[in-house]
Amino acid sequence: MKSELSISGNRLQITRVFEAPRRLVFRWWTQAEQLQQWSSCEAATKCEIAMDFRVGGSFTQKMHLLVNGEACEFSMTGTYDEIIEPERIVYHANFGHVVTRVIVEFYDEGKGTKVVLTHQGCPDEFFSKTVSQGSMESLDRLEALLASQAVAAPL
Amino acid sequence: MTGNRAALTINAMVNNSKKITAIFAALADPTRRRILVRLSNSGDRPVTALAKPFRISLPAISRHLSVLEKARLIQRRREGRVHVIHVRAAGFKPAQDWLAQCAAAWDFSFDKLDQLLRNEQRKEDQDEVRAKHQR
Q1: pTM of the entire structure?
Q2: CA-wise closest residue to A111 among A24, A27, A19
Q3: What is this model's ipTM?
Q4: Which of B92, B113, B118 has its CB closest to that of A131?
């Protein structure tokens, strides 16, 4: 995994540095034609995105998957809550069963751009207290999963 | 990831959706989170002992406990007339897995974005060189 991952308090945070200036990186998040090219998963044969990139605007992402030779679909929807170009995008995503708030922040990092993506879906203290009490096993498991799995990309 | 694993993962996501909803809903309440933290710190507790530090009625605590029980985050056992509450660590797994899948999907997507950005940068650099030559 090339991204950096941290789970603390109520959030899951994924950090990645891209070797491109901020305005370019940001642009890849703002248009369906561009998002479709990268936001999907390994099992996806096609990814369709419809989006209205403005505060209050919504988006849908439909992925066509080929699983055991059988075609299936996975869809999700969301709404943009905040857009500050080229710094920050906030939206909430609805996966049918779970609604998460997603915050994407773009920072200059040398000549590149650091993207910090935060998922807030689980409440405070969930992971930091209750789960970590159990053992580090859960985190090891998480790392193993991350090393091996990729599934429907939550846009 | 092979097709099989993808199938398993996606099926798990769909099948677990009710469980995950119940877990996140159960954890959304601060009192219920404090109950879980307390149980994790001090081990199994009888209902009455568990209720003590919270300034709410026993029936209110019972309601919270039944939400946690339905989400399968705790288990209740009887010791004579006393109900003892126990945390089920395994109960958190569906929510953890769900987060893991989110993270894995992002990492996979970011690899693709990285490649696209590299191509774009290369093209821009070439255009710049060409423009210089033409000048």
Answers
A1: 0.67
A2: A19
A3: 0.72
A4: B92
Among B55, B111, B117, B16, smallest CA distance to A39 is for: B111
Identify whether the C-beta of residue B99 lies closer than 8 Å to the C-beta of residue B23: no
| Number of helices followed by number of strands (H, E) in chain B | 6, 3
| One-letter amino acid for residue A52 of the chain | D
Residue B4 CB-density burial (10 A; 0-12 exposed, 13-18 middle, 19+ buried): exposed
Q: Of A20, A28, A154, which has the smallest distance from its Cβ to B102's Cβ?
A: A154
User: What is the pLDDT confidence band of residue A76, given thresholds at 50, 70 and 90?
Assistant: confident
Q: Could you give the CA distance from residue B106 to residue A155 in angstroms, rounded to a whole number?
A: 8
Q: Which residues of A touch B87 (CB under 8 A)?
A: 130
CB contact under 8 A, A41 and B20: no
Task: Assign A83 to helix, strand or coil.
Answer: strand
DSSP secondary structure, A28-55, as one string: TTT-HHHHHHHSS-TTEEEEEEEE--ST
Is residue B66 pLDDT above 60, yes or no? yes
- Token representation of residue B91: 């109960």
Using the beta-carbon criterion (under 8 Å), do B40 and A133 form an inter-chain contact? yes
Q: What is the gyration radius of the CA atoms in chain A, in angstroms?
A: 16
Cα distance between residue A6 and residue B100, in whole Å: 11
- Which residues on chain B are in Cβ contact (under 8 Å) with A154? 102, 105-106
CA torsion, ordered A44, A16, A77, A151, to nearest 10 deg: 30
